[in-house]
Amino acid sequence: MASTxxxxxxxxxSSAPIPLAALDYSKIDVILRFLxxxxxxxxxxxxxxxxxxxxxxxxxxxxxxxxxxxxxxxLIYFVSAFSVSGLYGLFTTIVSISVIQKxxxxxxxxxxxxxxxxxxxxxxxxxxxxxxxxxxxxxxxxSHVGWIKVCNVYDKxxxxxxxxxxxALFGSIVDVLLIWLSAYTLHTHVPK
Amino acid sequence: MASTxxxxxxxxxSSAPIPLAALDYSKIDVILRFLxxxxxxxxxxxxxxxxxxxxxxxxxxxxxxxxxxxxxxxLIYFVSAFSVSGLYGLFTTIVSISVIQKxxxxxxxxxxxxxxxxxxxxxxxxxxxxxxxxxxxxxxxxSHVGWIKVCNVYDKxxxxxxxxxxxALFGSIVDVLLIWLSAYTLHTHVPK
Lengths: 192, 192
Known about the structure:
Two copies of one chain form a homodimer. By secondary structure, chain A is mostly helical. Chain A has one domain. Chain A is built from five helices and two strands; from the N terminus they run ααββααα. The first copy, chain A, has a two-stranded antiparallel ribbon. Chain A is elongated, with a radius of gyration of 24 Å. The first copy, chain A, starts with a helix and ends with a helix. At the A-B interface, α3, α4 and α5 of A face α3, α4 and α5 of B. Chains A, B: Its main location: membrane. Chains A, B: Belongs to the Casparian strip membrane proteins (CASP) family.
């Protein structure tokens, strides 16, 4: 016991705890921002590559009928929103890395990133909701208004759409975590 | 000019700027939270009262066909999300008022409210997106998949839906502003 307590002051003096903890948050921030970038690119790539053409009966004659994301304004909004989010993720990853090297401006950047994160969360969450609503309609249809389901015909298109929405949901959760992390880091710097 | 500069120190000494500014932020916080509550209640009330029954031709015979929000899973999600957001708005308005009276716990509460605000923003933005996507489909239809537009028949239903989505969008923006305000208030308490 005596030898353990005698070494403690040496350990404490060699490593300052507060800057180390702050550095760890910065690294998690960079990882989360890169995850947001990755999730956004995956979501966009999955939906852009979802085109599928099937033979559909039109007045008794089978005609090739393509399904493309461009045919739905909701999916165009989804692709636009996640393109913005992907670019934002990439840009802020670089900013976040550069802030690690210059910790003097850290808290100011953290505030601005938090403000932008909140905006991006609004955009990606609404885009995920929009695409999710349309995808559910494609899967189940709505008999009350006569909107038929289409996923029994366009299976590949719907699989891509489902994968894209799952990745988008992950991206939205990452964005919430980013806001939480920034807020917590700001709070740790407030004097008690 | 000389008389103006001579009065300035007197004004500065009579009013302490930092606590006054903090108090103002708290008041804006209460107002914004009450606005979130109001917007959520309006959005839910507008959509719940949107039921409309019209005569629709079914195999050549006009039959009464009702339009209700319950028929669409997207609108059920919308109502659920904004019910949660309304309750959250009411609860946090009370919390925010009580924090004004006990400024000692202000920053701790502010952090927790910011974390919850980010979650609520994700929920309300996705719900607004979902309902917006379905409403746009009802307004314009989608000829590629044979989903007909319905707003030419159910005009009252669609008017209520549009009003509800506009209010929901306002509520989402208020939620973004709440996050911005909390983050900014936290940042002002960080020593420079």
